[in-house]
Amino acid sequence: MPTFCRHNRLVQNCPICSKEQDVEMRPVVSPAGQGARAPRPVGSSGAGTSSRRGARSGSGRTSGGLTVRRLSRSAEDGFRSALVPGLRSGDDAQRLAEELAFAATRLLVLQSDPPGLYAEVGDPSGPIEERTWLAFLIAYVGPVDGADPFAAIAQARTPWSGGEAPHLDDVAMGPRTAHEPERGQRTIDAYRAWAQRAGSQEAAFSGDAAWTPDRRFARVFERLALPGLHRGARFDLLVTLGHLGVYDLTAGVLGFGGNDPVTLAAKRVLGIGDTLLLERRAAELAAACELPLAALDLGLFNWERGSRTGMGINPESEPDPELLRGALAALGL
Whole-prediction pTM value? Predict the structure, then answer.
């Protein structure tokens, strides 16, 4: 029976796993009846080459518009874990555990003592349409890291009932903002139209009363795929509304896809590109670390970014010791 490795290749075809398992690699053969194509000498040119590839600049961007991302990794030191097969460095694994624990700590803070504008979103005495709209603005603009993470959002906000777009000119955007100045208010308009089609924001986020919390999360996450509202903003919006008790929402999937930083980080950490397998491995990692699945979103984002954003809480605050111990133990650190 053929054996496939963690990179979704036959073991004998994988240059990494064949070496680890001491399996002789299969020689590369050309299709029957064709000679092997000789490699093109460096510097040679061919018809159509310039139209397919742009010359690479020093910044890593080609003239054809392709952005080349250079990923930094710590040196391999023999670290191995079945939970994170993409990692080969204990330093990378240590940093991942810390970021996951920090993200889980933030979720606890949202539930027990929400800071700043989050407290207003979670206040059940306020009108639910205004609270929902404020949660959207927080996710869309994004808290900054500083003494007052919500100052720019408070400055930009407008009431939902008035129908006026928020004032986003010269407003400081957070690290996870979805706002693109060139789009203007088109994403805001799309969100309002989405809510109006359902009758209200409350109806749009509540969905079918028979849905389970994780089913509701998945369905609304899918329906919120509006122009300009990227995966991270949608996910954080639903996590915020769920943890602040506005709607009955629980993340049962991470919604991986595209070039989202969390998706790219998951592929690096979990060692596979297939989104279904990514979801499965992410759930296994969260369960082993005894952390909520939603914590992987901010945790992977900060790990991929290489620096921490607090998303409303102090990024320099220490993660809960118990949560950190659980994550470290799960990774064998």
Answer: 0.78
